[in-house]
């Protein structure tokens, strides 16, 4: 349910929602750079196609559209909201003299925004709240309304380092946060969680909050050699999930755990392999199936009786892994993608209401064979977005980047064909399809890009019967031109309700769309039907 509980996808597109369709990059941006790095760590989308993102910046300023944020210390956290076409709606920062980093962002059913991250200041002001640091570095969670107005904030920590790495929120506003800590005792307000193996190494934690920001339950586990909680999820029944990596002996091994609504551990799956492997992203579908992505090294990776073989004979490669578990923790299937002598990593995953799986990450091979798609690398490493069916077959993939290193950290789907990834890029010109961005010649910058698989989507019997729709976005007047006589046009809103119909009986037709927002058109001739997504302002 992670991050896409708000999304309502039109049922009229159920038969064509992702099946091997070409994808188009719709918008992309890279923040103007400086001599110090900045990165985007997470992204989420709402039902209206708005996109929300978080991360950090070390430069004196960071620019989102016309909004410039100043840096108050070493590193500041940013939160930014984009409109459906990539326009910046608002942006704000959290930070004082220390380091503040945003690691996770999610939404509830009312569109409220939840963020999580870490801070080093002894006192941190977020909105009207002042958070007192327990020790060295603390974690925090904060809630805002959809317009960016502050509601509440809570911090947690101990005498040592704590870091929140991921958050997920259900439709009612219950949230789960996961991360790492070193302190002997971890304080979540009045709730305390003991470290199971106190040492100088990280252990993982998971904590559940109610909609008012009260910590309901928490848990910690791990091994003496260190552990990482990297991904979080919560389902409609209130079950919570964590994924990451632990070191039971030597080397990191991927794990996934499920907790009940009251914090009881229900099951854990632990991988094995002759190299390190870890999970970075996780989501839960509407049936309670759990999907995890990450990477593995070594010649093999085994979990739940299924074994993946590394694409490199020496086992030195990083290969992308994608594993699907059922609600009881049984492995349904496991897939890997990779090229020899390459670093190919899955960083984030989302599932739509049809069970289609969307993965973002990066690859360093010159060419990356991704199912029916062959991705070409522009430089050191490029970002990618790929779509799998519920049964684990690759439907499509696309990539973008420049001559240096591009890294993806997050992914979001908006339910209308938009898939957004966020991460960072280095120097050089970026190419996302026909979109060209002249990135400054500095260190890493925040990079965010969105593609769409429903833009000018045609479900026609032959490729020479394509319609042209213009302008899009529109202020109300829309024109259609084509080779065949248009027999009927149907207009639908985002709930699937038909709001108008037209019977042109002509090749070219202009008509007025009075409704605003995201709309969908079905255009009929005698032999075929075409589907379009329209933005009406």
Count the helices. How many?
0
CATH topology of one domain: Immunoglobulin-like
Share of β-strand residues: over 45%
CATH architecture type of one domain: Sandwich
Please report the total strand number as a whole number: 49
Strand order of the largest sheet: 42-49-48-45-46
Average the pLDDT over all residues and give the rounded result: 88
Calculate the terminal CA-CA distance, rounded to whole Å.
30 Å
What is the oligomeric state here?
single chain
Spatial extent as radius of gyration: 23 Å
- Give the low-confidence spans: 4-21, 455-465
Highest CATH level, the class of one domain: Mainly Beta
Shape: globular
What is the helix fraction of residues, given as a range?
A: under 10%
**Biggest beta sheet attributes:** 5 strands, antiparallel
Helical/strand content category: mainly beta
The CATH H-level superfamily of one domain is Immunoglobulins
Notes on the protein architecture:
- It is built from no helices and 49 strands.
- Helix content is 0%, strand content 55%.
- It has 537 residues and is an all-beta fold.
- Mean pLDDT is 88; it is low at 4-21 and 455-465.
- The radius of gyration is 23 Å and the shape is globular.
- The two termini are 30 Å apart.
- The chain has a five-stranded antiparallel sheet, with no helix packed on it.
- It has a domain at 458-536: Sandwich (Immunoglobulin-like).
């Amino acid at each position: 349910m992670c991050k896409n509980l708000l999304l309502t996808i039109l049922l009229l597109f159920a038969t064509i929602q992702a099946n091997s369709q070409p994808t188009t990059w719709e918008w992309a941006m890279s923040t103007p750079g400086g001599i110090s790095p900045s990165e985007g760590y997470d992204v989420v989308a709402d039902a209206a196609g708005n996109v929300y993102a978080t991360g950090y910046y070390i430069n004196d300023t960071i620019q989102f559209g016309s909004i410039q944020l100043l840096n108050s210390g070493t590193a500041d956290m940013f939160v930014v909201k984009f409109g459906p076409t990539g326009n910046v709606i608002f942006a704000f920062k959290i930070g004082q003299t220390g380091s503040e980093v945003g690691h996770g962002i999610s939404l509830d059913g009312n569109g409220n925004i939840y963020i999580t991250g870490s801070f080093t200041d002894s006192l941190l002001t977020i909105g009207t709240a002042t958070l007192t640091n327990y020790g060295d570095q603390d974690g925090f969670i904060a809630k805002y309304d959809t317009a960016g107005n502050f509601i509440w904030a809570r911090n947690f920590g101990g005498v040592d380092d704590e870091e929140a790495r991921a958050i997920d929120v259900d439709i009612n506003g219950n949230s789960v946060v996961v991360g790492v800590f070193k302190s002997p005792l971890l304080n979540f307000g009045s709730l305390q969680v003991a470290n199971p193996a106190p040492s100088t190494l990280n252990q993982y934690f998971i904590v559940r909050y109610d909609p008012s920001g009260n910590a309901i339950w928490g848990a910690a586990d791990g091994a003496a050699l260190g552990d990482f909680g990297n991904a979080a999820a919560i389902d409609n029944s209130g079950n919570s999930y964590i994924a990451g990596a632990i070191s039971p002996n030597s080397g990191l091994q991927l794990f996934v755990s499920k907790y009940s609504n009251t914090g009881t551990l229900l099951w854990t799956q632990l991988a094995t392999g002759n190299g390190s492997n870890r999970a970075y992203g996780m989501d839960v579908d509407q049936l309670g199936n759990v999907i995890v992505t990450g990477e593995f090294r070594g010649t093999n990776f085994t979990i739940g009786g299924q074994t993946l073989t590394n694409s490199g004979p020496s086992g030195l490669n990083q290969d992308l892994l994608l594993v699907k578990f059922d609600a009881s923790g049984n492995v349904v299937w496991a897939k890997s993608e990779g090229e020899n002598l390459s670093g190919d990593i899955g960083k984030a995953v989302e599932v739509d209401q049809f069970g289609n799986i969307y993965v973002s990450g990066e690859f360093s091979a010159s060419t990356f064979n991704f199912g029916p798609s062959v991705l070409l690398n522009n430089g050191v490493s490029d970002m990618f977005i790929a779509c799998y069916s519920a049964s684990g077959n690759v439907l499509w993939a696309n990539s973008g980047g420049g001559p240096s290193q591009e890294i993806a950290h997050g992914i979001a789907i908006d339910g209308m064909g938009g898939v957004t990834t966020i991460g960072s890029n280095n120097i050089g010109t970026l190419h996302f399809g026909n979109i060209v961005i002249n990135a400054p010649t500095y260190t890493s910058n925040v990079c965010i890009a969105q593609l769409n698989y429903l833009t000018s989507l045609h479900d026609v019997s032959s490729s020479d019967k394509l319609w042209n729709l213009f302008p899009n976005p529109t202020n109300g007047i829309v024109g259609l031109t084509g080779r065949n006589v248009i027999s009927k046009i149907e207009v639908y809103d985002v709930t699937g309700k038909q709001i108008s119909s037209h019977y042109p009986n002509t090749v070219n037709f202009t008509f007025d769309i009075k409704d605003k927002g995201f709309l969908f058109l079905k255009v009929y001739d005698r032999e075929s039907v075409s589907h379009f997504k329209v933005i009406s302002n």
